[in-house]
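[09:14] KT: can someone run the structure on this one? pasting the chain below
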Amino acid sequence: MVRCRAGADGRGEIEVFGQIDPPHRLLMGPGPVNVHPRVLRAMSADMLGQFDPEMTRTMNETMALYRRVFMTENR
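[09:31] RB: done, structure tokens below
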């Protein structure tokens, strides 16, 4: 990460920070916990927009499953 700011004399100042790479730990507390690598990959994937055809297909499938769960024909 690079951070730029103006110094007191008006000249620019640049700080360069290295990559954050914490060691692997087994988290067992009530807060954040370890997640499966598949979840991490999914979280880092490109996002779909709400009007993307793939998102529309996924939402239609989800709604169909909800209709089965709640035993309804509502649309």
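[09:33] KT: thanks! The chain is about 30% helix and 15% strand.
[09:34] RB: yep, looked fine to me
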